[in-house]
Amino acid sequence: MTIEIVDVNITSPGRNFVTLKITTSDGIVGLGDATLNGRELAVASYLSDHVASMLVGRDEDRIEDTWQYLYRGPYWRRGPVTMAAIAAVDMALWDIKAKKAGMPLYQLLGGASREGVRVYAHASGTDYAALKNAITGYEELGFTAVRVQTGVPGLGQIYGVSAAGPGVRYDYEPAKRSGDRPSEETWDTRNYLNHMPGIFSQIREDFGTDLRILHDGHHRMSPIEAARFAKDIEPYDLFWLEDCTPGEDQTALRLVRQHSTTPLAIGEVFNSVFDYQTLITERLIDYVRSAVTHTGGITAMKKLLDFAAIYGIKSGIHGPTDISPVGMAAALHLDLAIHNFGIQEYMPHNEPTLEVFQTSFTFDKGFLHPGDQPGLGVDLDEDAAAGHEYTKAYLPVNRLLDGTVHDW
Predict the structure, then answer these.
(1) d(CA 117, CA 128)
(2) DSSP strand E in 133-209: where?
(3) Whole-number Å distance between alpha carbons of 58 and 282
(4) Mean pLDDT, to the nearest integer, of 102-124?
């Protein structure tokens, strides 16, 4: 068999998704997630205009060779657009291979290393009372780990805060459908640093020590600010502090490590193992946060996590709702198979999305399982997808109180 048809599907059931569909000459279909939030059409064009014609006629079984062909062949390497496109091809080819083998993908990756995958939910609130309600709701649903974000006095809308009540699906969509320009938010790091330790103290007082607490700094602190913050929150035993500084400067984490034992997670904006070399070899992080969708797919992510395992670093794969159910399924198969699994981010998709993407993974008492359907276990309903036209949406821009552009 060979690759016969390569299609790119763009749909927007509440948010935009780009899905690659590869069909072999024998009629087997594989799906890959190519979604890059706020820059979706760039990846769609890369696939349609540059990659699709290169794939037709290739042997669909030669996954490693195809990965290298798409990475090394064009000369211009890496970057989120290129790596998302490669990831989509890679996922689709693994989907096809597992379907041909008649088994779920995790079996081809070495089989299950655990019975299920511990996931964390997203709880937030504009104030502590709302946040407490949200955490309570997730505990009642069976979650044992929760990422917490809350409003900061003196600021308006900030990253990660949604006003969902107890037990209600976290429905925070930062990419606003606001026309040709992104919305803008305001930030003040000093207020944040002074406010958040008290929030963690209240959470521990109300929920005890068993609940795993995670928090995302979202790249907004300087190295010395991050070092102070990580040290201040040590008494509250966070599962991790995520993205405390901008990820581009890997050496910045040295300063944070010098001052604190708070576990660190980073990498959702990374797209290559090379972004991690210093972080991993110097053990400057505890969890790898990349998404399968943005890091070259299953082939590349497996190699990255095997590299991290040598240094005792675990996985914490990125899994927000701008990763499609196809990308989420790819993450879950990896999570189940690898030895150095840490935790998986889980934001349930809305009903329209789950009508477009029909999934086989299941949730039970804080754990997910990818299911045992052959392949990734996700089907694309193209008729349903066609009912949701693409709508331009941008992630926000962030500014300090004096108007300076800051990391969002």
Answers:
(1) 29
(2) 145-150, 184-187
(3) 40
(4) 97
**Cα–Cα distance measured from residue 203 to residue 213, given in angstroms and rounded to the nearest whole number:** 9
Band of pLDDT at residue 170, cut at 50, 70 and 90: confident
In the numeric block, the tokens 């969902």 are attached to: 164
Q: Is there a contact between 37 and 322 (Cβ–Cβ < 8 Å)?
A: yes
How far is 323 from 292, CA to CA, in rounded Å? 9
CA distances from 400 to 100, 162, 189, 252, 406 (A): 53, 21, 8, 21, 6
Query: pLDDT (tens digit, 9 = 90+) per residue, 74-86?
Result: 999 999 999 999 9
Q: Of 159, 170, 192, 276, which one is the catalytic site residue?
A: 159
Which pLDDT tens digit goes with each residue over 219-264?
999 999 999 999 999 999 999 999 999 988 999 999 999 999 999 9
Which helix (H) or strand (E) segment holds residue 4: the answer is strand 3-11
Look at phi and psi of residue 58 and say left if phi exceeds 0, alpha if psi is from -120 to 50, else beta. Answer: beta
Would the pTM count as exceeding 0.85?
A: yes
For residues 381 and 355, the answer to whether their CB atoms sit within 8 Å is yes
To the nearest whole number, what is the mean pLDDT of the chain? 96
Contact 239, 213 (CB under 8 A): yes
Catalytic residue among 218, 219, 294, 349: 218
* Helices assigned H by DSSP within 34-109: 40-45, 52-55, 63-72, 80-101, 105-108
Q: State both tokens at 152.
A: 């900061």
Specify the pairing of strand 367-369 against strand 362-364: antiparallel
pLDDT for 164 beyond 70: no
Structure tokens at 126: 């504009």
Annotated active-site residue 218? The verdict is yes
In Å, what is the CA distance from 406 to each residue of 246, 282, 328, 396, 401? 11, 28, 30, 11, 10
Tokens (6 digits) for 397: 């821009």
φ, ψ dihedrals at 174, nearest 5°: -70, -25
Which tens digit of pLDDT belongs to each residue from 127-137?
Answer: 999 999 999 99
Has 159 been annotated as catalytic?
Answer: yes
Nearest-Å Rg of the Cα atoms of the chain is 21
